[in-house]
Amino acid sequence: MPEKKTFYITTPIYYPSDKLHIGHSYTTVAADAMARFKRLTGYEVMFLTGTDEHGQKIEKIARENKVTPKEYVDRIVAGIKELWKLLDISYDDFIRTTDKRHEAVVQKIFQKLYDQGDIYKSEYEGWYCTPCESFWTEHQLADGNCPDCGRPVERVREESYFFKLSKYQDRLIKYIEEHPEFIQPQSRQNEMLNNFLRPGLEDLCVSRTSFKWGIPVPFDGQHVIYVWLDALSNYISALGYLSEDDERIRKFWPADVHLVGKEIVRFHTIIWPIMLMALELPLPRQVFGHGWLILEGGKMSKSKGNVVDPVVLVDRYGLDAIRYFLLREVPFGADGVFSNEALINRINSDLANDLGNLVSRTVAMIDKYFGGEVPAPGEPTDLDKDLEALALATPGRVEGLMDQLLFSNALSEIWRLVGRTNKYIDETAPWVLAKTEEGKARLTTVLYYLAESLRFISVLISPFMTRTPVEIQRQLGIKDEVSWDSLKEFGRLKPGTRVCRGEVIFPRLDVAEELKALEHLTESKKDSDGAANGNGSGSGAAKEDGARSSESKQAGVQAAGKEAEGRESLPEITIDDFAKLDLRVARVIAAEKVEKADKLLKLTLDVGGQSRQVVSGIARHYEPQDLVGKNVVIIANLKPVKLRGILSEGMILAASDSSGKLEVVSVSGEIESGAKVN
What we know:
six-stranded parallel sheet; eight-stranded antiparallel sheet; Isoleucyl-tRNA Synthetase, Domain 1; CATH 2.40.50.140; 41% helix; single chain; globular; 21 helices; alpha+beta
């Protein structure tokens, strides 16, 4: 028997400063769906997740909670594992950076790089952001603050060990150019090349002396190994790299895909591959930087208190509804908006109306018209053959899309089959056929084709939804193991199989009632969590998102690129003053970064059929492709000016928080470009 092909997939290792939210669940559910899909299609899979537990923030939070750092992270990690259990995450290994197996490998890596001259001792002086645990040069700062999170930075000076990133810069550029699939989506690749690699890399600080919660440098006990060399090594330490048991690294490395949030793409596509080059290991085949699942008011963040608790949602709507929504609602790679209303509407339309109704109707009709046994089909008509052809074509389409990590598109293809099968019921009208003997002969074929199509659907959805396929197969009376290979042939469901009517899989929800209930549940959860946390993890820990991501955007409307001013400092204006402003809706039809200007984007706008160019200081807050298609609001009658030699004909409005993080003011796509804003 030939050996199975292997597939290695990883999530980021999450930072256990506090409980994880729906955004972290999004990444992990996506990785789980991919792992399940690959197992289903015959691969031997290694699926790794875990936690990144060292660093100054954890040390500080633990001190505030009057526990040791290890005691603190143990409690949080236990909660993370419970969440993954709730979400039915089928990981093969859970790595913690406090595991002895990991610490031993990291020390060996550090020693190896030092011995070969890729790590050297020097002194660091520069700007440091504690929340992001990142060092920055003067020119990298954004108005004197951290360019990632917008918070203040501090000047630090300390003895450190450095890793020679600069030595491998040209080699990495060449590799990326020769392997366009390495960084996905394409926009992330362009960002890494143009913003970081080609301008030039500085050597990386890889040790600290200002705190002790970390892995000691093996030959210098005054230093602990700094975050990224420690954290990134998890992908090979979990496989037994530089250990006596290295079977898994020989079998599974290089990784097929690292799934990471877009905020940590830089570390995974610059620092990590250079580490691997220095270690003479192959690079991962792909790093995929997906977008954020954000709320309507901005990115989820513990410090804002706007996180969505996946436990609340799963408890109310069931595991599969939440898994389906996360993977279906947002094209993987782009930012997507989470709202309770979108969730409820998706459950009602796709799960209750389409899938749940299809299962109920099919099983009920087999029970009613044929005593609960799947009938033997007669000669198929063109209508039957059409349904059969779509069913047989769908697995191949899904496989092609999954290989590109296009989860939403894959589910859309499956729902084409769900929709077509529902339409087939309307076209054949089984309740009419049942009225005559001639019709009953035809009815056998119709109900068989419905049941067999549901068998296909149950297999197709199984990587995405773990409970529903089992229930569909139970109601259809399928007891045999169901495999991906079983989808190569239409007609494997045995006539005479006894169906078993069950409860409606996805009951339809009352939107208004559910929105009220969710609001109440969310507030109750906040109160209970706050009471449980007291002045402990709910204070210090709340300042950090998992996977060391940055905080984002919130409130106070202003023109993009301008600092917010206090309300009291601005004079009152009259309605006549306001009338002088020509505020218009404009659709972004193209966007690009301004060369040699870190903060500027050049936007081409459609304003009521007229093309207009605006230069806006939002490049640190938006990728160009994220803006294309948005309906933004501009001051259309602002006197044109030249910025970096480029004519700017207006100003985009944006909202900003006290740290300067921006979010453009946008309106629904239903509003026509050129519409006046009153």
